[in-house]
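quick one, 217 residues, struct below
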Amino acid sequence: MLLVLAGTNSIFSQTQKEWRDSLSVLNRQIMSSEYSSDLYLRKAAVNLELEQWDYAIETYTDILKREPANPAALFYRAYANGKMRRYELAENDYRNFLKVAPENVDGMLALAYICIKRGNNKEAMDNYNRILELFPDHSIAYASRASLETTEKFYDAALMDWDKAIENDPQNIEYLISKAELLILMERKAEARRTLDDAVRKGAIRGQLRDLYHKAK
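---
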């Protein structure tokens, strides 16, 4: 299940002024109508687009007072709290969201990210492992686990995960660059150069990789 911000799919191209105008319309509709979670979610989605994190959180909280298990409100309140670096609150909401949608990959990835922010790398790793048990072709999960394994200096495991991420998303230039950076750390410089060359063939700008090429000499 991929969550979508309710009511925003038709207005992604709006300017900041148009977003604010939409917000004014939604506020008037909310004031003049009976409670509608759809209207509240639309309003909160616009708050997010305008980076009005506190207003979005307030609106999602209003929804959750009426609908404690509303998955969109839980997920995006967690997201907004994460933007505000209120990681404990974000973690609580992601956990509650996963009680409603236990196999939602976006929720599991988000919880793992928050766990890292809170210094709980072990639980983050457990989350990545669970995602890959459920979704063995999920390139983002492989890449996320590889990044954490690199932080933990599990370089061989990280390299295998970068290879799996690239296998499942072969056109992703960032994955290739990250793999090259890891190979440089591992002193496998010839392989790093070949990986950088592959990234350039797939569209990376060679000049922007000058420092990595220098380290891979």
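DSSP finds twelve helices and no strands in the chain.
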